[in-house]
Design brief:
With about 70 residues, the chain is low in regular secondary structure. The chain has one helix and no strands. The termini are far apart.
């Protein structure tokens, strides 16, 4: 288990530059925990459901590529 790091004040993080922090302990996320979060947030857009895309693929069917780039001439 990693040694806990305490940071004090606004300038505290500057003293950690270049220092490796972590890795921390793993936390298992259950379906119930995801459902509880979506209930609290009011956001039920297929959160963590296997088989659903994370991003809307748009007309090109590739995430992040909704069409022609704006810089390309017709």
């Amino acid at each position: 288990m990693p040694t806990p790091v305490t940071v004090e004040g606004v300038a505290g993080p500057a003293g950690l530059v270049g220092r490796q922090l972590g890795p921390g302990n793993w936390t298992e996320i259950s379906r119930e925990r995801v459902d509880g979060f979506t209930d609290a947030a009011g956001d039920h857009r297929d959160a963590g459901v296997p088989g659903y895309p994370v991003l809307d693929p748009g007309p090109s069917r590739r995430p992040g590529s909704p069409g022609r780039p704006a810089w390309r001439r017709p």
